[in-house]
Amino acid sequence: MANNLETFYDTAYNLTLKCGKLIKSRTSSRTKKVETKSGAIDFVTETDQEVEEILIQGLSSAFPDHKFIGEEGVSQGKQCELTDAPTWIIDPVDGTMNFVHSFPHSCISLALFVEKVPAIGIIYNPMLDQLFTARKGHGAFLNGEKITVSGINSLTDALIMMEFGTSRDPEKRTIILENQQKLMPQVHGLRALGSAALNMAMVACGAADAYFEYGIHIWDIAAGELIVTEAGGVCIDPAGGEVDRLSRRVLVASSQELANQLAKELVQFYPERD
Ligand code: LIP
């Protein structure tokens, strides 16, 4: 499988660069075709759909026995089922709201899971030419340079990423505001890039120290989990304990100590599982 992983990685890498060019060529367009999905501000564009099709077509022709979980396929009714088979987990444009507004923080998030654990992770922001990569056991990289988490192990020294999300659920919104109120006096600062994958990439390269969110999906976090852990960080459930990739909840941090402190502080929210 090791040799195969190299082939899987090389094929995914080249397809990601090809799709990045497509996204970058369209980011400044003011005539994007935008539709809504689960709610009034949960957007999908023709670029999201086209990139997912290119990735699935390219990977399935190269590896016919591989399976796929893609954001747009699932939103059109395909199964979101993770088996032991090699499975590509795809968010074709993570940060679609940012893409719609030409705000340059969107990325392709692509991961390969084998026997239900991540083996390859790729996060590519073509607008800023940031290519985050990881292969299990081989470390994490930004544009080919090795990256590591900050190692910060105290909330009082931490820059925390958290999101407002694209759901207008009043209970969730209340809990987001409660967590902002609780954390603001204790941490260095709160930030939101509008992309789960890019938030996780910031933790992986030490530009932020932790990120948590309720309401994300496996395709938002699949690549980021491996890139963070290969950079020396941790990925857990926001209440502590093992991450459950279909629970729509995630917390990553530069150290277990920081993860535990943050989990202890958070007001919890439990979305309906995928
Ligand atoms: C986005 C996530 C982000 C979340 C947004 C949205 P999308 O994914 O990356 O963390 O806050 O609500 O779900 O929809 O742009 O692929």
UniProtKB/TrEMBL annotation:
EC number: 3.1.3.25
One Pfam family linked to the record: Inositol_P
GO-annotated molecular function: inositol monophosphate phosphatase activity; metal ion binding
Gene3D superfamilies registered for this protein in UniProt: 3.40.190.80, Fructose-1,6-Bisphosphatase, subunit A, domain 1 (3.30.540.10)
Catalytic activity: a myo-inositol phosphate + H2O = myo-inositol + phosphate
Enzyme class: hydrolase
Keyword annotations: Hydrolase, Magnesium, Metal-binding
Pathway assignment: Polyol metabolism; myo-inositol biosynthesis; myo-inositol from D-glucose 6-phosphate: step 2/2
Domain of life, source organism: Eukaryota
Cofactor(s) in the UniProt record: Mg(2+)
Record-listed Mg(2+) 1 binding positions: 71, 91, 94
Residues that hold Mg(2+) 2 according to the record: 220
Homology family: Belongs to the inositol monophosphatase superfamily.
Protein name from the UniProt record: Inositol-1-monophosphatase
